[in-house]
Design brief:
The chain is mainly α. The protein contains eight helices and five strands, in the order αβββααββααααα.
Length: 226
Amino acid sequence: MSGWIKIHRKFLEWQWFDKSEAVHLFIYLLLKANHKDSQWQGVDIKRGQFISSLGKISIDTGISLQSIRTLLNKLEKTNEIELKSTNKFTIVTICKYECYQDETEQTNKQLTNKQQTTNKQLTTNKNDKKEKNNKEVILNRWVEYRKQIKKPIKEATQETILAKMENFTEEQCKFVINNSIENGWQGLFWDKLPKHQNELSDDLQQTANILAKLNWKDTKDYKNVD
């Protein structure tokens, strides 16, 4: 038998808690109860039930047979358990087993939801960290350029630029830095970003304008012209 059970702190307020043998016995019953429906020699054993005998319970717990009879009788009278005896065995039912199980399932559900949320946050953090690292690599190109022109950038300024870069995509950051380097500028000009991220290159745009003027709807026809 494997698995575990959960006992709420309110068990300390249980009416039989000051009776050590009663506590011992009841915990044993909880541990022995089935967590799902099953069968034993053609007998249906529901969740929260198990088959045993007074002698078996006495041997397992080390509690005398007479005390077992007395304790089971008390637990049955206070609606903690139900007993159904035959000439071969006794079926023990934990009356409030569903309450214990529901609480466990709810806890497991909360733990699962918390774990999923944590995993999602970790994934988001990893992605954010990866993007930040990529932008640091992009910024290093600008830092090296400034060193080459004898205009090094202080670390505080680098942090300021990196914070600014967080408002733009990696491609936009590359464009601004490359644009400044190619033009020999000493500063970064974010207002010079293209208005449309996916706008056509000059050559493609020029070709598109020509096609539009000639009203050629099918570029295939254009390719077939000698």
